[in-house]
Structure formats: structure tokens, C-alpha cells
Amino acid sequence: MLMSRRTTLAALAFSLLAGTAFAADTIKIGVNEPLTGAFAASGTYVVNGAKIAADEINAKGGILGKKVELVIEDNKSNPTEAASVAEKLITSDKVPVLMGAWGSSLTLATMPKLEEYSVPMLVETSSSGKITTSGNPFIFRISPPSSVEAEAFEPSVKKLGLKKVDFLVINNDWGRGAAADFSKMLKANGVEVGLVETMDQSAQDMSAQLAKLKASDADTIMVTSAVDQLTLLFKQMAALGLKKRIITTGGSQNPDQIIAQAGAAADGTMHLTTFLPWWPEKTPNPEATAYFLGEWKKRGFDFAGATESFRGYDGIRTVAAAIAAGGGTDPASIQKGFWKVDFMGLNGPIKFNKSGPAGKESGQSKPNVYIIEISGGKVNQVQLGG
Amino acid sequence: MDQLLQHIFNALVLGGTYALLGIGLTLIFGIMNVVNFTHGALYTFGGYAMYLAAVALGLNFFVALPVALVAGLVLGAIIEFTLLRPLRRSDIDTTMLVMIGAGIIMQSGTLWIFGGVAKAVPTPFPAQPLTFGPVSLSYVNLFVLCAAVALIAITYFTINGTKLGRAMRATFQDHDTAALMGVNVSLIYTATFAIGSALASAAGALLGPVYVVTPQMGDLAAVKAFAIVILGGLGSISGATIGGFILAFAEELGAGYISSGYRDAMGFLIIIAVLLVKPTGLFARAERIG
Lengths: 386, 290
Known about the structure:
- Chain B: Pfam families: BPD_transp_2.
- By secondary structure, chain A is α/β, with parallel strands linked by helices.
- Chain A has 2 domains: 26-144 and 285-364, Response regulator (Rossmann fold), CATH 3.40.50.2300; 147-279 and 370-382, Response regulator (Rossmann fold), CATH 3.40.50.
- Chain A is 46% helix and 20% strand.
- In chain A, helix 8 crosses helix 9 (227-240) and helix 12 packs across helix 13 (331-338).
- Chain A is globular.
- By secondary structure, chain B is mostly helical.
- Chain B has one domain (14-217).
- Chain B has helices spanning 2-32, 39-56, 61-84, 92-114, 139-161, 163-173, 175-180, 185-210, 217-232, 237-257, 263-277, and strands at 130-132, 135-137.
- A two-stranded antiparallel ribbon of chain B has the order 1-2.
- In chain B, a hairpin with a 2-residue loop joins strand 1 and strand 2.
- Classes of the chains: A alpha/beta, B mainly alpha.
- At the A-B interface, helix 2, strand 7, helix 8, helix 9 and helix 10 of A face helix 1, helix 9 and helix 10 of B.
């Protein structure tokens, strides 16, 4: 007992020493992602992408002469945890900047902590409109809000001949936000909006919702959720003999994983995505895309994760660019630096525009949105508009 | 009307697996007085055992299922032998804490070994559903329902029609007297926990191929199992069976006709109502006398 206590103390002292030694010559970036819980798969992909970016930056000599160090914490797909993880990263690890927190509800829960401690956060995945319109000046987002997705999809409404659309969305800020933004756009284009069904983020059986949607007279169902739930949905749709046009939003579909797990059930489904790893030459920055995909493959990660992980990669590169542009490693300099960021990400230029109430604007970059279709077990690009 | 028929079919399939989950839990509580917090983890274990047997070992689907069931039986026996047996004389709180810890270890272990990405288990059933007019029913769901009903029937027969079952019931009524009558109570405890675990594992192995297998799949399943047991009355097998179907119908019809947003709340509303009217559950067992 005595022995073990002494060992623990020694270990504690050592880790504290090691901690301070590190702090002197690295810049810490807090990473707040879901590594367990309903969004474990997606969060893990984002973190793996982030690690590639950090290694690349360090191999090139770091930023401002210092190496980058990622401090990665698991928010357990739970908003309460996401807020306490942010607090832990800021107060205990003393990170001057964060990246996170994958889901909209997770990000919204951490936002008050950013204001409390005046630390900026790069939002890499969340798409609820509220995030950049609620007047939090510490938020900088590179993923598209659902209104931008809806706008990008607008020209396709006529082309696909949509008449009446039902929604099936995950029951949180992400899903409900997407249903609201897409409904608005569809109604403006003369498309009728029918049912808006929701599902719990950890629900596995959606047969009740699907039976209801099957009986509806809508021609299309717009679905918002992440890959694991989408896989289940497509399998259950096939089991119910539900054959309608399916369009998913949110960019967390990992189409290759869906093909592998849902098989023929996913055939004919369409997905709004923000990255085209299938055709690196078609992306806005083919060279960076090729490097990223090469590293991804070299590390033995599943190709299916690329559509998710690229956001972690671009996210850390954006944070690094902000640190370099701000010229300091304190939160205030980095916050200023974000406004000067201007480079080509894997899915378009990353440059922040002001969004939200005057004087307290958040930063919103406008990435490209693409539409793809799964057919015959393959991913095909569908031209937007026309 | 068409929609109602579809909802009823869906609820029957769901109810079968809910009943399976509930029986495993209620059996262990009824006989051993142990609140089994590893129940969800055992369900997950069944899913991964099925995945390993069917995908990694390449066994036939119908061979892999019993393999997963037996794996659950063995794991249950190991848990009982290593964790519960030494704690036999301790109070219920200690046992509960140890079981919560074991549940966390099992879930984290699964995450550590298999990672967070979901695994799919292929089934030999055709993807095209059976259709009866407007109602569709997939072969795999039909199989799951039949398998669940068969397992429930076997469990019922084991408890009510075999020598082992008689010893189990005797232990449940009064373990001191049962011991005096020559029942090997320790063995009965191990057998009970193993059977309960095997049922949870079988539920995971049956539903793994229907859904996908993830380290978190047991979380919601465990909550549902506890709800079913409370609904049906602690320790009652027929109560858990009926409770499972009631919960499934409440969820399915609630989501279909009231609001899908409150789907998971429907079951709990019923439980609150039951607890208000009949606090011991719908089918309460007779309390042990003395």
C-alpha cells in the first residue's frame, strides 16, 4: 500500500515535470471529439485526420518555431461531457485553442465555455445554423451550416423533379436544424413538405418511423444522421419494402462504409457531401488531397473514413494557419489570426466571413457541397443544378 | 389500416427480442437477487461473438448462432464464478458496484479490441422482403421472431419442467431450505447466471445481423431490459415476456401515431403508470416468506 502510494506520487511528480517541460516548446491544440458513444466511428476518423495534419506540420518545422501538440479528449457523444471536456482542456491543459466538437449539440454545449474563458474553437463538422448566428465571437466554422447545404442543393430540386418531401432526422440540433433549413428552401421552390419524423441518436430500430413514412404520399425522404444509423435505416427500409428517393444531408455518411455494410439496400440513395476522395483530381486542391489520402492509406485506415477525417485534417491546418497569422500562442492572438486565414482546403478555400449579430460575429467559411449517388455498389457524382 | 398491420408486425418482432432480454435479467434477479449491470455488455458480447464466428471464422450463420449462445453461457459462468461467488455474503450494494464495474470493463474492452466502427454480420436470408399486400416482412426478422419464441419456450420448459428448473425454483423460494434438502445452491447460482447471460448473448447474436454490431449496442438494450423487468414484475418470466411485448407495442404505436420524437419515452410513461397503480409490476412474484 505504502509502496504503491509512493510510486503513484513519483509518477504524478514526473508527469507534472514532463508536462511543464513540454509546455515550453510546443503549442497545444485541444481536440474535443466523440470517441465513444453513438458517434464514436465519426469522431475517431476526425481525430485520425487531425493527427496527420499535426505530423505534417511538425515535419515541416512546426509553427512560430514550435511543435504542435494535440491534446485529445473524448466527449462520449454527450453534450454535458463535451462542455466539461472543453473546460478541462482550457483550465487544466491550458490549451489556447480548441477544435471540436463534431455534433451540433456537442458544439453548442461547449460554446458558453469558450466565452467564459475567451478561448477560440475551430468547428470542423457541426452544421446547425445556431452555432454561427448566436453571437459567439470565439467560433470559427469550416463545415457548411445546413442552410448552405440547402442552398447548394436548390438547383437540383427541379432537376430531380421533387414534388413532396418527408423528413427523417436525428432528434438533436443537427437533425432538427437540417429539417428546418431544407423545408424552408423546398417550400420556396414550390415543393410540399410532409412529415418530419425524428429518431434518437442511439436508436437502432426505426421501423415505426419507416412504416409511417412508407404510408405517406411523398416521393422523397430527406434523411439526416451519421453513418451507423444510416446503415441501419437503409437495411430497415429494404426490409419494409420502402422504395422512395432518399437524399441524406450532413456530410457524415462515409458512403463506402454504407456500401460495405448495407449492400444493395443502399443502392439508389443520394448523399450531400463536402469532399470527393474518389476523384482527388476533381477536388479544389488535388495536391493536398493526394497527400492526405496517401498518408491515410499509409497509416492503414479504412478509405471509407476519408469523407469524415478530412475535416480533422483541414481543421488542424486551419488552426495552425490562424496561429501563424496571429503571431502569438495566446488565445486572443489566435482568435485574431483566424480572421486572416486564407488557404485552399481539401474542399475549397478556407476563409472566414462574418456571421451573426454585429460586434460579436462568428467566423464561417463556405466549403463546396457535392451530391453523390450510390449505384451498383459504387459511388457516382451527380452534377448539381442543370 | 395497412399502416397499423405493419406496425403490429414490427412490434411483434421487436417484442420477441425485448422479451428475451427481459427474461435473462429477471431470472438472475429472481433467483440470485443480483441486479445484473453486465446485462447490456453480455448482449454486446453476443453480437461480437456472432461477428467473430460468422465473419472471422467463416462459420455458417446457423452454426454461428449456437456458438454465440454457448460463448455467452461460458462467459456468464465465469463471471458468476470469479465475481459473484466471492461476494455471496456481501450486501446488494457491493455486488451492484462490482457488476457496474464489470459492465464498464466489458464495454471498454470491446471498444479497445474492435474499435468504435460498427461491424456488419451478413445473413443468408434474401434481402427482398416477404410481402402480404401492403405489409412487408423481412425473412431475417421473421427468423429472429421464431428463434426468440423458441428460446423463450425452452427457458420456460427448463424452469418449469426439468430437475434443474425445480432446483432453481426451490432455491428462489428459500435457498437455505433448498440447501438443506440437498440442492447444490452454488451450482444453481452458476447455472442461473449462465442461462441468463446466454439469453442476453443470444439476443445480441440474433439482433447483431439485423442491425450492426457496436460497442455501445448494449446501452439502450440494458435500459429496455430493466424497464421490461420492472414492468413485468421482478423475477417473473411470464411477466418479462408480456412486458417485452407491451413495451414494443407502446413504442411502435406511440411512434407511429403520436410522435416519433417521444418513441423511447412511451415505454417509460407506461412504466410510471404501472408503478403508480401496481408498484410490484404487472405479474409480481410471491415474496419469499421468512
